[in-house]
Amino acid sequence: MAHHQFALASGRNIGVSVLGDPLSSRLVVICLPSAAAGAFDPNPEVTGTCPARIIQIDRPGYGSSDPLPDDENPTVEAFADDIAEYLRSVTSQADALTQLEFGRAAVIGWSFGGATALALAARYPELIDRVVLVASPRPRRIRSGERFSAIAELRKHGIERDFRSMKASLDDDGPPSLISLGVDDSDPALEPLGVRGRLERMLDAAWVQESAGLATDRLAVRSRDWLDRGDEVTQKTLLVYGARDVLASAKDAAWFERHIASAHLITVPGAGHLVVIDAWADIVDWVCRGDEATDQGVKDPQLRR
Asked: What does residue 272 show for φ and ψ, rounded to 5 degrees?
């Protein structure tokens, strides 16, 4: 579960988890896939020495985050707005209490989380300086339901029009599994001690309110306001894809390369949809550089498997 809750101005609470250095002035936000919540750490050994405060926020209906009011339609941009409100609050409180000055933050979007990351970067360039998209399908594939959140079964729910009916249908399917995330059980990334357990805890945290979060995600992608946000992203962007990933392919990576002016692609040989684990050391190193740093070395990353 999330480490604590933050109350938005609307009164709705969101679950917030913090990894890395809790005293660092360098902020990094991770947007998790659908069916994911809580404090997921791709590699605790790397994260433990990371010179950044790594923040994960549960989307509405997941983990420790309240569901949306019945009269509020979910949108991907609203997910981004929640993160922006939290970042502004953290920055203002730190300035008032400790005189600690924060620069702009980095955002990492893994799988479906890439949609939120794109919306956040495009909508709030004054808050975000770097973007990483990890195994993220291109936007129109997500909206169409194709491989949505790596759960192919969700296609059959496309006719559902409201939250209650969507949630009821998804509740019947039961809790998500590693297969639901698009993770092949033979993926070498699962071999290190603790990886499987951390992923399963992430899935369990997402199911605390049953499928409320999944249903909210599925409805949010129906809005069209976030589809072409790639063209509005001006920040330096790193695209990280696994060569064996069947859910987010080279075609998806190529789409982002075409639409994001400053995008740079790295492909991890042998990696699948868990490429976030395979490449975590390089991702952390890149996002910690900040908006004033150069990108020397990114063209030939030392990926650690």
From this structure: -110, -140
